[in-house]
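Project channel, design review

CF: Before we commit to the Pseudozyma flocculosa constructs, I'd like one complete example in the thread so the newer folks can see what an input/output pair looks like. Taking Peroxisome assembly protein 12.
RD: sounds good, go ahead.
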Amino acid sequence: MDLLTSVDPTSSSSSDPYHPSFFELAASDQLRDLIKPAARYILAVLAQRNPRHLIRIVNHFDEVYHLVMLGVERHYLSTWGASFAENFYGLKRRRRPALQTTRAQSSSASTSVAIARAEALTRREVRLSLLFAVGLPYVQAKLHDFWERNGGGVDGLDGDDDGLFGDEGQPGGRSRLMEEAPASRRERLHRALLRLFKTSYPYAGALYQLWLLSYNVGYLFDKTPYWRPWFWLMRVDVRRMGGGDGPRRPVLPKRMPPLSQPLRLLSTLLRLSPRLVFESLKYALPLSIFFFKFLEWWYGADNPRRRRGRGSGSGSGAAGGDGDGSGSGPLFGPPSVLQPHPRGILTHWSDRKEAGKAWKHPKVATHLASSSSSEDGEEDAQQTPPPPYTPTATTTGEGGRKLIHNSCPLCGTTPIANPALLPSGYVFCYTCAHDYVERHARCPVTLVPIHEGVDGLRKVLG
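CF: and here is what came back for Peroxisome assembly protein 12:
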């Protein structure tokens, strides 16, 4: 993917406009390091769904991955003269000319065929590039895996400290027992070499990273044209792609077999299928990144479809959830409100009498009935209840009422003192709700049973 075709080679801001910056090379190197763990994670997830066929690939992931990368890198090195990550960032490799002068640089900026052929990678450079791009990471991965499997980075396995789990009474438990057992010379040599490897591997890795760092710093300050030490061995440097740079060989033939010859066309497509798959990777990579970012947003909290309220203030308010299909409301609407029971504390006098004198007339509603209404002493359940209470707030409709905001339905205190929530969804004063639920084990408004008793109360904070 040529991302830098807009670079003007005639610009005077840089002596060599095709010289890539340190950050371009670092980005390509980081991309190469991120592909392997991403592929391992995807394969591990797929293996959980189909372990019968994929578990063997997971167990030999390093071998399978580096074999695939061998084919990918070979295709891009032989076709584009760059590795997969370098080609993704619009970079290429070239054979560094023996004479590097200002005149030579100006001539190399041209797109003459002779210079392009002279700078193209030969089979030797391609093979060496494959060795360092695929073979070296594979050896490093196997060495690190061997170091970890043999206790690398874990103290206490050499017999000097306590065991892995801190056996204070048995210093050096496992190693000390192994040393007491009789061992042949070959086994002792093997243990000595293993101990030497575990001790020296971290230092060797640190020296290797310092070696790479020295080349990075030298390249950053234009002290060396080589980004990596093996580039100096191959006499190859990395350059930006120009407008005239293209594949050394066409991806597709100039003439494809006609549709009148289906067998020949099919054989040609099968022969070109590996090349087409490898070429599609540089387009599939950004598409996959976009797809995963889309899934992350879709299942994340930033998606407005998953918010509990509407994103805009239009419509019937912030409650949303009316299922109008506009996409601005929540994915699932709010649960339906439990209406007061006809024999509940708000609508029936007998419940209030059964509760005792402690339950006062709630101040959330006013009684509009005349004095000729039913007497307080009547206990008949079939008696017609008195006219419903009319709240001081606006009514919801015929025969319906709405509680005053922040008022206790039991005692009528406004605001509610130490509010507590019942499973039915109504809020009361904590003392009122606790006493009522402890006696009746139900909601005083909806008469919904509360099997947990007072444990079903939830204090409302805020």
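RD: helpful, thanks. The two ends are 55 Å apart (CA to CA).
CF: The chain has two domains: 22-249, 341-462.
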